[in-house]
What does this fold into?
Amino acid sequence: MLFRPGRSGASRAFNLPNMLTFGRMLIVPAVVACLFWPDEFALRWTALGLFVLAAVTDFFDGYLARAWEQQSALGRMLDPIADKLLVSAVLLILVADGTIKSWSLWAAIVILCREILVSGLREFLAELKVSVPVSKVAKWKTTMQMIALGFLIAGRAGEAILPGTTRIGLALLWISALLTLYTGWDYMKAGIKYVVDE
It folds into this structure.
């Protein structure tokens, strides 16, 4: 049986799941700082380690919140924000250092545009007291996105260990972009339905 910490008002705000989410947000500038020097392979590996740590906390904050019954409004608000900050910041810095370029820029643009679209739709639907649950495809999209970005962060440093690391990352980025379009359309359909009803 899992241990469940207390659920007072203060503990709900500063419980372990929420602290993991806060930690993920603090990791974002550290990852970006490491990638400012793309030719320093030690920093790229450091960035990858921090990114993997952030991805792991993304799993555990939700799992622990459900297992310990510590789900909170603060956690529901911060979790998607932390995810979007991490993905958006890493995509931008990878574009800046030339890891993502040429036609692959479109995959990054699709992912960023979808994040903005979904944020706006969620805000609109929240005003109508409508909740749109996360689908299995959306979870696969997030997983694929994280794996793709992991390969791209390793990038040039990873080529010495696994030739084609960057190409693998770009291929996975395109797959996640296609899944992003699909899940974005799901949110659009939900939003349009309620706009028409109104």
